[in-house]
């Protein structure tokens, strides 16, 4: 199953970061991880444009491309706690294009507990033409200044399954306007990425960094590594795939928030 919400995640992250000058929690660069949207009691409208590139297209611990990386472009509009976005992905070394159209809503359950709910439509173009619908939610606890736990849930209608990620990330402002965030994520698959196998899917860790060039422009990057677990290993064995199933990849993004 291909993905998704790297850019929904990035959208929320960048708006929060530009408003809070890197005090907001940094996003985890995985397929379904998302940060909550910043609370906006004044119902102001924000706009975002993002351009980025990843050395591989990794989601659910799997590389979705046979070779090369992928370019991304995102446009988003946030009004209050509602975020509406469109994301275009285009492989740099093969025939693959992906569109994501979605919306998400942030809910403050308490001063330290935030939730999001959302929906997105996925359209894939390449060797095969396909599409999907996804419903997602997340829960994030911000009561500890240096450590932020979160859990993310995604349900896909075509697969008839769901994907769960539990994460810890820790943001540190090393220099003015420069923040680094190490993170770890444990993912579980239930008929979402593979139909025949359920349970632990992969473990992921990495480091993200972002630099606020000014109040509107953010330069960010990441390096990430995934370790395949039983769901991926059993799927690979059934398909006759041999060799390492772990993935290492990196990416960079330039985001304009106005």
Sum up the structure in keywords.
single chain, 258 residues, mainly beta, Porin, twelve-stranded antiparallel beta barrel, two-stranded antiparallel sheet, 10% helix, disordered N terminus, signal
Name the strands of the widest sheet in spatial order.
Answer: 1-4-5-6-7-8-9-10-12-13-14-15
Amount of beta strand? over 45%
Could you give me the name of the CATH homologous superfamily of one domain? monomeric porin ompg
Please work out how many helical segments DSSP would assign.
2
Category by helix and strand content: mainly beta
Keywords: Signal
Question: What does this entry look like structurally?
Answer:
The chain is mainly β and 258 residues long. The longest helix is centred in the first third of the chain and has 15 residues. The radius of gyration is 17 Å and the shape is globular. It has a domain of 152 residues: Porin (Beta Barrel), CATH 2.40.160.40. The protein has two helices and 15 strands.
Task: Provide a concise account of the structure shown.
This protein is mainly beta.
